[in-house]
Amino acid sequence: MLVEAGQHGLRVVSTNKHARQQGVTEGLRFTDAKARCPDLTSQDIDRTADIQVLEKLGHWMMRVAPLVAIDGGDGLMVETTGCAHIYGDEAAMLEKIKVLLRRNHLPNRLGLAGTPGAAYALARTGDKTILPNGEEKAGLADLPIARMRLSEAAEILLRRFGLTRIGQLYDIDRKALARRFQSRSVADAALIRLDQMLGTRHEPLSPLRPPPAHACRVNCPDPILTGEAIEIGLTTLTARLCDELGQLGQGARGFTLLAFRADGTISDTSITLARPGRSAEHVTHLFQEKIDRIDPGYGIDCLVLEAHRVGPMSVSAVALSGDLAASDTDVAAVAALADRIAAKLGNGSVLATRFLESHMPEQAESLDPFEGDLASRAAYQHVIGPRPIRILTIPERVDVLAEVPDGPPQRFIWRKRSRHVARADGPERISPEWWRYIAPLPPAAAPKTADQKWLAPKLDPRADAALIAAVRSELEAAPQGAPVKNLPRARDYYRVEDTEGRRYWIFRKGLYGDNRGGHPDWYVHGLFA
Questions:
Q1: Residues 255 and 307 sit within 8 Å (Cβ to Cβ)
Q2: Are 506 and 522 in contact (CB under 8 A)?
Q3: Whole-number Cα distances in Å, 463 to 186, 468, 469, 492
Q4: Measuring CA to CA, which residue among 82, 46, 42 is closest to residue 64?
Q5: How many domains does the chain fold into?
Q6: Is the domain of 53 the same as that of 183?
Q7: Mean pLDDT for each consecutive 10-residue tract of the chain (529 residues)?
Q8: Domain limits at 366?
Q9: Which of 278, 257, 253, 283 lies closest to 268, judged by CA?
C-alpha cells in the first residue's frame, strides 16, 4: 500500500486487492491498517512522479481525443465530444480505450457522462460506465457524496447531517444547506461541485498541450499592462527564436505567444504560416494583428513564444532578373501575403486551386486551404482549348430553339432570356471517363472464343455503386444494339458569342445516334470575360 503524512500521522492513500480484502481502505490511519493486517508493507507515495506519469499518459491518450486534462492525482479527463462516431458509438469507443490500456498493462476504470463531475463519479464507482447526456440527476442520485470531490471537512460535516448520498442534496434548500457549513467558502465549494456534476454550471478544463519543438521566454522585472510593452517583449522573443531556428536550418508553420499573468492564469494567441518560415519581421508583423487579444489582467510576469510544426526550410537565392527566374511567380511572396490575409480574416480564408485527375471540367480542380505551394501548370497541359475565367459549379441546362446537327445552336434560352448566337468556335470533344463507372461484365457473359478478349478495368473507389449496378443490369437485359441510358455520354464544348457581345462556354451532352440515351441536352458551363 501507499501512505502519506497527514495532520494526524500517516494515512493510507492507495491499497491493492489483498489489502482491501483484509479491511484496509483509503483514508485509514496507518496504525489501524497495521492492526488489521500485520504483514502489510507500505511505501511513501510520490505525488510528483505520479503527475509526471499522468502527463505522459495524457499525451499518449491524445490518439483517442485531442483534449486531455489531468484529473486530480490519479486520473485523466478526456473530452470526447464529436469523437464517438469515429469508433461507431460510445460503447465501442470505451471498449477501444480499454483495449489500448490493457495492452499496455495499465489497469483502469472508465466513466462516460455529459459533465466532467459525473464522469469522475462513474469512473471511481464502477457500477455504471456510461451515463447518457441529460440523465445526470437520476444517474448520480444513489452515489455516495465521496464522489463529489469535496474537502475532507465538508464531507465529514455532510455525514453528520445524515447526508450520505448525492440525491439527498437535491431537495434541500440551498440557503439552508449553505448555513450548515462552518464557512462560506466551504459551502460555496459544495454547491459548485453539485452544480457542475448536474451540468447547471460549466466546469472548465485545462487540457494538456503537446510540448513545443522550440520555445523562448522573457521574464518581466515588473508586471506589464500595456500593449506596447507586450510588443517590445514579442520583438525580443521572435528575434531569439527565429535565430535559433536559422542555426538549425529549420522553419516553423505555427507560433504561439503565451502571457503568464500575476494571478496565475494564462492568456495566449497563435498564428499559422502557409509554409515554414523563420523571418522575425514577418512573424512580429503577423502577431501585431492579435496583440490586442492578450488580456494583461493584473499584470504579465512572463512572456513565452513557442514554435510548432517545425521542419526543414528550403531557401533559394533570388534571381538577378525576371528572365533568369525559374518561375514568374514568387511563391514565398505569395505565402507571405496569404499569412497576412489569414491573420486578419482567420485560418482557412485563403484558398488555392488544386488540379485533379479528371477530364470533366467541374471535377478537374478543387479549392483547398492554401498550404504554401501553387499548383503546377504542367498538370493542366492536357487542356486543348481556352477555358473561361468563371466556371459554374453545376452546369445549367439551356433550352435550344434553333439547333444545328453537329454544330452550336443558333438560338437558346438561359435563365429565362433568349440569346441569339453571332459567333461560335468549336467543338472541343471530351469523352466520358468510362473507367470510373463501367463495371466488368460477369464471367457468364464472357465470350467463349479464344480470339476475343474482354477489358476488365479496375474500378475507382469513388465510383457510384448504385450507378454501376444499374449499368450492369441494363447491359445484361438490353438486346444487341439497343440504347443504354445509364452510360456516360461525350461532351462537345463550344465557345459562343451572342449579339450583345456576351460570350459563353456551352456544351452538348451526348451525340446523335450514340445509343446512350435520348436526344442530346445543352448546358452552359462557364462565362468568358
A1: yes
A2: yes
A3: 64, 8, 11, 23
A4: 82
A5: 5
A6: yes
A7: 80 82 82 84 85 87 85 86 85 89 87 89 80 85 86 81 85 77 73 87 81 87 89 93 91 92 86 89 90 88 92 66 57 84 83 81 83 66 70 90 82 92 89 64 44 40 54 61 66 93 92 79 91
A8: 351-380
A9: 257
